Amino acid sequence: MRFFFCLLLTLNVLSVFAQSTDRTDKALERKLRAVLTNFRGNSGVYVRNLRTGKTVSINADTLFPTASMVKIPIQCGLFDKIHQGAIQYDQELTYKDSLHYDDGIVGSLKDGAKITLSKVVMLMETVSDNTGSLWCQALAGGGTAINAWLETNGFHQTRVNSRTPGREANRTQYGWGQTTPREMAELLTYIRQGHAISPDASEEMYRNLGRQYWDNDGLSQVPPGVKVASKNGAVNQSRSEVVFVHAPHGEYVYCIMTKNQKDESWTRTNEGYTLLRSVAATVWHHFEPKSTWKPAEGYEKWW
């Protein structure tokens, strides 16, 4: 039964992918191509309006580094283990210094400190805690198990590379993980629609993705009263973001990814960060043309 359930979900994803290429939103595509024109690097965008079914695909099937967006598939792999009964979402874990990767919140815990798995997952998705994320990756069975789940569920381009046997060359090229704008947007949609693991697991994963600390890029271009779920990622030559927006006139999802950026700075004015905001604003105002909302004057001073 599990085989046929997974087969059904895979066919559903493939059907979505096929349908999404049939109806292109030409007007939005023109706007987004104009936004991408002068970017110094490689970029890709995928947008899907779930109400109309219209899409935009610009280098949407090109591979890019996930950076911290890999934490979405890590969460899926982890919840698969929970669904199997191998681990419990509310179980208490013991932190060890051997888990330390960087000095985030989890990495700052004392050796022997107790913390529940649910809190580690929350920190992975909300503040993008790296030590916590690698811990979750290990608890999920490692990159090999997560990649197997991705393959089974129809995500053939999205992979975890770091600490995954046989993927050393991919890690050298793409870092922690790799994906395409289309697959990352559709993975978030897969979760939103209750297809990932189970409806209840999808719901909890989606709630986690709706609590984003890093809200100064694409999310800053959407009114704060609008529900969103998202994950972003950044390394020196790459800035990326996937966002599901519960817009007043219909839900939509989009993913913008970059690589080989000339601008490797870590300020708000980085060309990649600027592109994330420009894409977010362009998509929002295209789908919500009567919206007069814009970020408050002086908002950027906080960043």
UniProtKB/TrEMBL annotation:
The keyword Magnesium does not apply. Residues 1-18 form the signal peptide. SUPFAM superfamilies: beta-lactamase/transpeptidase-like (SSF56601). It is an enzyme of class 3 (hydrolase). It catalyses: a beta-lactam + H2O = a substituted beta-amino acid. Its EC number is 3.5.2.6. Gene3D superfamilies: DD-peptidase/beta-lactamase superfamily (3.40.710.10). The keyword Hydrolase applies. InterPro entries: Beta-lactam/transpept-like (IPR012338), Beta-lactam_cat (IPR045155), Beta-lactam_class-A (IPR000871). Residues 44-258 form the Beta-lactamase class A catalytic domain. Coiled coil: none annotated. One of its GO terms (biological process) is response to antibiotic. One of its GO terms (molecular function) is beta-lactamase activity. Keywords: Hydrolase, Signal. It holds the Pfam family Beta-lactamase2. Belongs to the class-A beta-lactamase family. This is beta-lactamase.
